[in-house]
Each structure stands twice: as structure tokens, then as C-alpha cells.
Amino acid sequence: MQEFFMDYGLWLLIGLLVIIGLVFLLSGKDKAQDAPQDIAPTPPAQTPPAALVEPTPAPPVAAPVEPVAAPIAPIAPIATAPEPAPEPMPVSPAATAAPEADDDLLRLKGVGPKLKTLLIELGVTRFAQIAAWTDTDLAAIDAKLGNFKGRPVRDQWIDQAKYLAAGDIAGFEAKYGKL
């Protein structure tokens, strides 16, 4: 018998704990289901017939006293400063040309669908725009990228965009890999 418990004792203990856990869980469900049924609305109190009720005398009513106070001057509305309009994104002269069609920004290495959407919201839709960025433009865009901060420099977007804006696919693929 001792050998049996040595071999299977751990499994028996685990099985016993599982059974206790199931009983505990099932007993908790029964109580939770019974609880709303135990609470019944209380019946309205029985009002005695009018003939049996004794009239109670009404308490004396005092005349309202008018408070004497100095007249209150109206409060002037608080002047709030108008919210400043969002600062427009600086656009370099090379990017001000009328775009024929938006470029596929997903071709840039390091730009995914979410980042593409964010760039479009910031007004960046062409490789020529990115290729013409100066250091101040890059810093301004980088500050607005949120979780993607640092990606333009790390992934060398300006250099990639120069190749793609010029149509130099071979040069791009030689330096950054297959499109």
C-alpha cells in the first residue's frame, strides 16, 4: 500500500484539489443564482382606513423672514485666451510644387501602414517632400511622430527619398535592398 501512495500520491493529491476546486466553484454559482431570487419586493404598507386615523394638528407656520443683505454685483465673465491655431508644418520650396499623385510611402524602408497614415496626416505624401527636408524640418516632423520618434534618422528616409524621387531604383536597391 505504501508503494501505491509513493507512485500515485501526487496524482491523487492533484485530483483531490481539482475536485475541491470544482465543488467550490459550483457552490458559488448556486449562491449567486439564488441571491436575486431571495430578494423579493416588499409589499406596500397597509394604510389604515380614514375613519381610524386620528387627525394630527399641523405645526404652526412662521412668517418667512426676509434676509437683509447688500446687493450683489454681477460677476464679470472670465476672459479666456483663444487657443492658438496649430502651427503649420514648414514646407521646403522643393515640396511646394503641385503634386500629380501621391507616392507610395510604404516603399521607404522602415515605413509601415501606421507610419504612412501618420505621415499623410502631417501632410507628407511625396518622396520629393522628404528628400527636400532640412535639419529643422526633420526635427519638426520627428517631434510629431510619437512612438515612431527617431525613425527618419535611423532609417535614413531623406537619402532613401532622394533615390525614389529621382526614380533611381537601381541605386536605391544597391544601397537599401530590394523594393
Question: How are the secondary structure elements laid out?
Answer:
Layout lengths: L1 H37 L74 H9 L5 H5 L3 H9 L7 H4 L2 H10 L2 H8 L3
Could you describe the 3D structure shown?
With 179 residues, this protein is mostly helical. It has helices spanning 2-38, 113-121, 127-131, 135-143, 151-154, 157-166, 169-176. The longest helix has 37 residues, at 2-38. The protein is flat. Mean pLDDT is 77; it is low at 93-99.
In short:
With 179 residues, the protein is mostly helical.
Structural class: mainly alpha
State the helix count.
7
Strand segment tally: 0
What percentage of the residues does DSSP assign to strands (E)? Answer: under 5%
Most strands sheet: none
Shape category: flat
From the N-terminal CA to the C-terminal CA, the straight-line distance is 72 Å
Rg from alpha-carbon coordinates: 39 Å
Query: Are there runs of 5+ residues with pLDDT below 50, and where?
Result: 93-99
Please name the defining characteristics of this protein.
single chain; mainly alpha; 46% helix; 7 helices; 179 residues
